[in-house]
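Entry:
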Amino acid sequence: MKQKLITLTLIVALSATTTAFAAEIPRESAPLNATKQQIQIVENLISDILDEVQTGNLGYTLAAGYANTRIRKAVMANQTGGNGYGILSPIAQNAIRVMRDMQLRPDAYTQAEEELKVLLADLIIDVQNGKDYMEAVKEAYAKIYQSVNPNFNYDEQFALDTCYRDIPTVGMEKFTVARKLLFQAQN
């Protein structure tokens, strides 16, 4: 009897100390103009939703709806440190989209990482040596487009009105992984 009580007490104690691991927002998914503080605010609001996306229990549409509702309520209750819905919602939407895509297509992200480590090796080293992250992201995007069309001129095409641009088709995973690699190099 005494041994059963000790075992039961031990099980309860171990259960109480188990912590839940809340999913973090992938920093490479955040809009380029988002601050660390804004990302953290969104992460605090929706980390449990991200957990459900990551495990495949929630699809993009439901997760995005739940996240938008929480963010809207937090903004209206002045719980976001003065940050508005217009910046917080895109942080959530991007995180959900990227996490869902990674969950559905893990091989595409693995392949993109292998390719981009080679294609962007010089930029990764430059960022490790202090090159500006934003400048490196722009150069990485140009290299990615040029890997599809060697004649692509980034500055020329993005100077045009959007309806006249001729931009090669590239999967979202390449841009996400490029930002991830450069972000890791920065830190």
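The first helix runs from residue 2 to 17.
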